[in-house]
Task: structure prediction
Amino acid sequence: MTSFEEIATLVKSRSGLTLGPDKTYLLETRLEAIARRLGVAGYEALAPLLRHDRLLQAEVVEALTTNETLFFRDTRPFDHVRTVGVPRLLAGRPGNAPLRVWSAAASTGQEAYSLAMLFSEMGAALCGRAVQILGTDIARIPLARAREGLYSQFEVQRGLPARMLVKYFRKEDESWRLIKPIRDMVEFREWNLLSDAGSLGRFDIIFCRNVLIYFDPPTKSRVLEMLTARLVPGGLLFLGAAESVTGLTSSLRPVGGEHFVFEVPRVAATVG
Amino acid sequence: MEAVMTPTNQSVATRILVVDDSRVVRKVARRILEEAGYDVAEAGDGAQALAQCHVTLPDVVLLDWNMPVMNGIDCLRGLRRDFGPDEPSVILCTTENGADFIVSAIEAGAQEYIMKPFDDAILIGKLEQLGLTGRRQ
Result:
């Protein structure tokens, strides 16, 4: 087994992420800092060190599974939540139960906090419902950053409208920190999408965008089935614009002809 | 002038007026924007920018704050006085990054705000955030 295959096998078993031979650049760039710190030449020399070092294994998996993210990445899902998703969910489930929202690949928190700001902006349109947002990720270090809610000048300029920057952030030296009421809307937890998510409960809205693209078809199906089982009847699953459920699950159908939001038909949901 | 729909001009490049007294900044912005498919014009200060807008109104003005002759805020107020609150979209651009500066820009009628130095990800990202891609339909 080559060093690449050895690392790819480890990453697949831990995270489900499939690293094909075309991804050698990813190992070269993302593992460079770890290799340099350990005084070895490149990822090829890391492989033997990984075999008996569980901490190093975790660090390598984390380095290869951390995704770039930005505030309000692709505005359409957020517009959909505001104009279609929430009104539908509230109409379908009268009462006072909080809306539960899951950002399933939260990374450094921009998606979860974008949702928190979106719900904060919705105000009275939420009809008094509380909103609970859970942000999970397999990678520990990005989650620690997410909990801090502190972002660089560069990060707050990417996707975040200036009006929301001044409303929801406070300047701290050269960085910007989200205000506490927004931070308090989100709980972050370390979580592997391949594990049984039953203990997380059920959600009205799940965002799991630009994650499935990294999985092989059987893993995509498995993750989609898990996500489907976590949706309340009528709940909505948002995937990345380039992602599809075709051929992977029959439990989900697109909502309103949009290719990025799916629901569990009510009959299927009551069985799950 | 009425557009004639032909296969070659069904989409028109979004027009951006880059206003900055630094020729280097204008050059960098022009390169980033043209590579992304935007149509770029330049002005060296706020007065020139206002005059150009009265000849051809761009879709977006990327407007520096600190300039001689007429600064960005005064130019922005002139644009809002002459063309109304929505057109053209204005992205105010400066090295000042305090919340109070951003609030002033929004209150004066800017749609967005970017801080120097900017790169292609920030600039193109802001334009896309405003719904303005390189080529409009």
In short: The mean pLDDT of chain B is 85.
